[in-house]
Amino acid sequence: MSILSFVAFTLLVAVIAWWSTRKTDENSSDGYFLGGRSLTGPVIAGSLLLTNLSTEQIVGMNGVSFRDGIPIMAYEVVAAIAMVFTAFVLLPKYLKSGIATIPQFLENRYGKSTKTIVSLLFLLGYAISMLPTVLYSGALAINTMFDIPEMIGMEPEPALWVTVWAIGIIGSIYAIFGGLKAVAVSDSINAVGLIIGGSLIPIFGLMKIGDGNVFQGLKTLTATLPEKFDIIGGPDSDVPFATLFTGMLIVNFYYWGTNQAIIQRALGAKNLKEGQKGLLLAAFIKILGPFIVVLPGIIAFYLFNGDLANADEAYPMVVKAVLPVAFIGFFAAVLFGAILSSFNSALNSSVTLFGLDFYKEYINHDASEKQVVKAGKTFGIVLALFSMAIAPLLYGVEGGIFTYLQELNGTHSVPILAIILVGIFSKRVSGKAANISIVFSVVTYLTTLYVIKPDISFLHLMGILFVLTVIIMYVVSSFVPRETDYNQEYTKQVDITPWQYLKPVGFAVVAAVVALYIYLS
């Protein structure tokens, strides 16, 4: 019954995605990479949330909350502030230029060499961290929920290889042959299912603890494990409170404002108004995120007495323990959709980056739109195979997959955010300064984190490095400035009239985040 409902829901989503995209011209760059610039606010919001809310988030963050408690929720709620900033400041700049990729914006601002370096950083980030962690965490969740190793008569680790490749092949077909609109439509359907299904897990978990009463379960949980609900977090916490003002801001502002896999949804908006609506709708829902991605980990700690060999198994173990059998197939299908969503999104963005920023630029300058899309698809297949080959190697990684992902992402998130913000707020900082600062940031971060290994949170390290990177840009530019002031041209590809309710809704989101922290502290 569980497997039947799993297959039925998965096929339903695929059919709806095909039906919705059958008239989109997938042979043009705008059609394939940006959904024909036709995405509306609700579709953008759903796609943003599901691209983000995948198994590396759900499995990984609940694994951290199993160990460390509620401070990890900072990744969720600070994201809402980052989305407000993107809606107010970054998206109007992007749409004014009519760009399809963040590196294209950087080319306009700094020059071709900066665009190439950043495109390469994005591609390496997707290949080494994002794609493999999505596949690994997804396979781990599916294997644990359905007892796949037992079903196919294999040990957990070899069984992981089978599931990783199955997910990777299906995801590749969606992303490479469907384009952005197919990804965004399937995301929106799965987002509704994931929010409903994801909310059921903590509800059923609290009912199990409270003998059928959710509020009694929450009361028992907070009384039994008060240390798990200390939002400030001690010095040994994965997220010490002070990091909210250093690396946590950088992680979120980079992720929601400059990460190609995420911002591509908003770049596909039919106009600025719809893009801003989508970002702020997603921001409001994001504030509720800890209920889905943090609380189940603490419930798992209570139910299993803190005794799990691999903390990343906390979430799928809770699902098995508390969800009625009739719901497991549906929820696994939604979770499968979330896995595909994040995998598809990173893969689609990689295809976009390679097709527009490498193939068209350096390999075949006279390529037709159709040739660019075809070359991008070929690259996507190679990248998918590479990520499927290394994903199972993450099994049992120290500190959990979520921390692994965030640490590695600092390599590119710090320099990319720095050069974009400086590029927007200054007119004279040069391309040479941007390039030098990127190399400095990448080399310094990797050397400090993996060779020197200082006794501070990697989030603080990101904060310090961000400030140094910005200083280096201004210092180098004082010696080698731009020849002329940078003035952004309006391409008129997209209407950039802002949403009339942008300010009140944006301020309400920020106030809600601050109120939540005050309440929980």
TrEMBL record:
Record protein name field: Solute:sodium symporter family transporter
Transmembrane parts of this sequence: 72-95, 116-139, 159-177, 189-209, 239-257, 278-305, 317-340, 378-397, 409-426, 433-452, 458-480, 501-520
Family that this chain belongs to: Belongs to the sodium:solute symporter (SSF) (TC 2.A.21) family.
Alphabetical list of InterPro entries matching this protein: Na/Glc_symporter_sf, Na/solute_symporter
PANTHER family from the UniProt entry: SODIUM_GLUCOSE COTRANSPORTER 4 (PTHR11819:SF195), SOLUTE CARRIER FAMILY 5 (PTHR11819)
Membrane topology: Multi-pass membrane protein
One Pfam family it belongs to: SSF
